[in-house]
Amino acid sequence: MREAFYLPSISDIKLYTSKVWQRIRPDLNKDAIKEKFQLIDYPILIITLLLILIGLFSVFSATMYIPDPETGISDPFGSFMTQYLSVIIGFVGLGILLILPFQLFKEINLLLAVQLILVIVLILTLIVGVIMGGAKSWIEIGGFSFQPSELAKITNILLVSYIVSHFKSLRIFSSEIFNNKHSLMAMVLLFATIVLVGLQPDFGMLIIMLVTLAFIYFPNHYSFKTNVVFLSLSIILYGLIILLANRYSDQLVNSGHYMLERIGSFVDPFAFEQTAGYQLINGYLAFSRGGFFGVGLGLGITKRGSLPAGHTDFILAVIGEETGLVGVALVLMLIFGLVFYLYRRAAMCRQAYNRNVISGIASLFLIQTLVNVGGISGLIPLTGVTLPFISSGGTSMIVSLIAIGIAEIFIIDDKRVVASYQTLSVIKGEGGS
């Protein structure tokens, strides 16, 4: 039977808040918080910290010759200090998440409220936001810029994981969605989020969101054979894009739309070496100069002006020039190692919700890395997507650390569940003897 919608009154909100507080209160005492920090999965934090250290040095090296926009003088520590501050804020956020009771992440009404706030902020971004990189996806507050869609990547994962885990027979446009107010509201908010990001238009972010959500939804609701069919269709679509980009490259590059220009130039950037292909060609040059072992830390040349976005999208090219194939391989091994470890932890989870959230965060890092590396290598069009934990970008760094914190929270909860099962088994064993 379809559930009726109504606006909650103040008394309803107070009653709901009181009930939530009663459920989370036991997790806020000193012993519970101490137990959480004892159950932290430290390999995840170690790999993350190594990536951040590499990223900080890479940002410092990539920006040491970039002039200050106000003075025109190079400030070697400007971008580095901004990134360092973002790391501090990110770790503070991670720590706060570890203290918060896990029950909060199970409150569907709270998840929906957070998503609704983000949708409102995304609407405001379209109205008063700042255009950067061809997309109106930033809001400036007091001299600081923030990209709300970055945070939406995480809330999307939480919301879809909850819905997928609690509605086993859920299908898009099925009666089950429309008959349940929570699933219906979740789908409406998710659809609104994706549409608003597309209107910015931030196609890189849009791709990451859609593919990440697909990685959560499809394995839960379709067979292996069906997923293989979807993957095959995606490969065919990719081939068609390459054929069309090659056939209509001139028209696409001269269209005046930044994304169409990138699609038209990625197949053969050398045909547009002074326009749409300029950035990609200089990325190739940086990699070729680096060879196997690089020209030396801080000694790269292309970052001095010929490589646009050398500290953001193309930071891996700067790493490749200065540390060579060895340095690039190390960075990618650490990222893929983190992704593999998160997938492994997800596979070990006893609860579907925990498993979907952790695997969703792993998929997010995987997809974002593949989109970044695919863009700078010319395998896919450039999208302006950053490399997780490495590229300069305050919002990206903070949100990535928040994602790690959420993964840790769900891993800790699963360890508690496993421990309770083991204790129960021991008690039953003793009772039987």
TrEMBL record:
Chain coiled-coil ranges: none
Name of the protein this chain belongs to: Probable peptidoglycan glycosyltransferase FtsW
Function (record text): Peptidoglycan polymerase that is essential for cell division.
Subcellular location: Membrane
Source superkingdom: Bacteria
Source organism per UniProt: Fundicoccus culcitae
EC category: transferase
Catalyzed reactions: [GlcNAc-(1->4)-Mur2Ac(oyl-L-Ala-gamma-D-Glu-L-Lys-D-Ala-D-Ala)](n)-di-trans,octa-cis-undecaprenyl diphosphate + beta-D-GlcNAc-(1->4)-Mur2Ac(oyl-L-Ala-gamma-D-Glu-L-Lys-D-Ala-D-Ala)-di-trans,octa-cis-undecaprenyl diphosphate = [GlcNAc-(1->4)-Mur2Ac(oyl-L-Ala-gamma-D-Glu-L-Lys-D-Ala-D-Ala)](n+1)-di-trans,octa-cis-undecaprenyl diphosphate + di-trans,octa-cis-undecaprenyl diphosphate + H(+)
Chief location bin: membrane
Record-stated family: Belongs to the SEDS family. FtsW subfamily.
EC identifiers of the protein: 2.4.99.28
Mode of membrane association: Multi-pass membrane protein
Keyword terms of this UniProt record: Cell shape, Glycosyltransferase, Membrane, Peptidoglycan synthesis, Transferase, Transmembrane, Transmembrane helix
The UniProt record lists the keyword Glycosyltransferase: yes
Pfam families: FTSW_RODA_SPOVE (PF01098)
Keyword Transmembrane recorded: yes
Segments passing through the bilayer: 44-64, 84-102, 109-131, 151-170, 182-199, 229-249, 324-343, 364-383, 389-412
